[in-house]
Protein 1
Amino acid sequence: MTVRKVLGYLAIIILAAHVSFAMAADQPAAVYGSGTQQFSLATGSPGELGLLKVLAETFGKQNDAKMAWYKSGSGKSLQLLKDKKVDMIMVHAPAAEKQAVKDGWAAKRTLIGSNEFFIVGPASDPAKIAGAKDVLDAYRRIAGAKAKFFSRGDNSGTHKKEMDIWKKAGIKPAGDWYVVTKDFMTATLKRANKEKGYFMVDSSTWVAAKKEVPDLKILFKGDKLLVNTYHALCQPAGATPGAALAAKFIGFVASPQGQQIISDYGKDRYSEGLYNDAAYAKKFDD
């Protein structure tokens, strides 16, 4: 076989692998329900932690519907909505959400609940953030000590919140101590545990995963800046085939039944809920 033929075969293999990866990336992480009507939703934490499954299956039984869930952080979810690749999203990036509605490619922005962020780290607390007066002070202490800090670095709602805090603290994080994972919440939390670093994790993930990260503990919480409000947004009417069904699902999530599911979720397994409902979240909404 000639070198040219070998290179040709390699090119075909590489192209096939690329196409296969692209197709896989377009596949939903899960489909919930078995109804004849379908809509799609992109989100991160509510899907990862199972809340979305309960909401979708309850709604599906009542409305002959099924939901395709695409696993993505807030930044990517917003882009998927903008590109009309999903019918709706659940995100926590208030400024970007408002701009999306203003620009006309997102609609029905609805507050659905909240959780909050904790800064977790090794019990030794090398940056002494447990004594910080506020979250800006905590971040400044981490940077000043050059203590290992993990960032998702993926334009998710968590990443956006983190970068907003660094900016307010007057710091541009960089160096060996600042580790960007390009990964999801739970995976990054586990890496922080393994490498004994700090990480800003949402309270829902912490409640669900804390037994898996025994070398980490909550070192700072309680700052209003760390409250994390979730909103649902969908396509404008008629923009996608599933837009009307997605809008109906948002109404269900905001209803007393949907809100009860949110506030109760996790109590049976963890003795505490993973999310707060919209009534609580409203105190912190902007």
Note: The CA atoms of residues 147 and 177 lie 6 Å apart.
Protein 2
Amino acid sequence: MASDFSQIAYEEHDEIRVIRFNRPEVMNCIGATTHVELVEAWDRFRTDDGAKVAILTGTGDRAFCAGGDLKDPPLSLDPAEIAAHCRGERPGALGPSRWTDIYKPIIAAVNGVAYAGGLEWACFADIRIAEAHASFGVTCRRWNIGLADGGTQRLPRIIGMGRAMELILTGRVIDAHEAERIGLVNRVVPEGQSLVAAMEMARFICTLPQPAMRSDKEAAVRGFGLPLAEGLRVEAECFFSSISEPETLEGLRQFNQRDHPDRRSDQKARTSGIVRR
């Protein structure tokens, strides 16, 4: 089922939600209306108990997202608005990019260029699947426009400070295969196949028990960059928030009774690459 948004699409596929930049005529740039619709869409996803995984992609075969629409900028330079952003009271410049508390899995299906704010939105995801013709870059460097949607913070966390600084300072554009080599992209697939691959992964994730997965994501997000002792404290807090869930008792039963395809030699394992003895 698709939504009635005008500049994005919000599609429901069973327990999967596809959030799609839907302005192919302008390389899926984010304007003022797009910003508002992205905030609504991501709030809908995070509060919907029936939604387990989100996939972020773009319409067409040219662009995932080419960043902010410089002809229709969503960001106001009113002093009061600037002060509110600097106090952390706004969700982001191009949609809710500053939200860090969506602990459900997010996959980016990068189907073309991911430039400037589009690169930042790719970094918003947990997993990035890119088509072979995709490319990535801080192209706003040319126009003296800085990164305001997580690029200076998420990109170094994903690929390391040295590689991130090269991309940030030079604005150099890299292709999908280099992005995979440096760890920005998890997988490269043929043109036209990123959403197919993302849906396949999302469907598998939906088959898994959700509470521990979400608490593990929360621990990873909240603990990243903290001193080890504090990160381990966060991990313990998250672990004990999910260990008593009914899904844990069912998981223990499946393990002990070998009542799961990953534990049964007479069935095909669900988990790719698992070794059974």
Note: The mean pLDDT is 94.
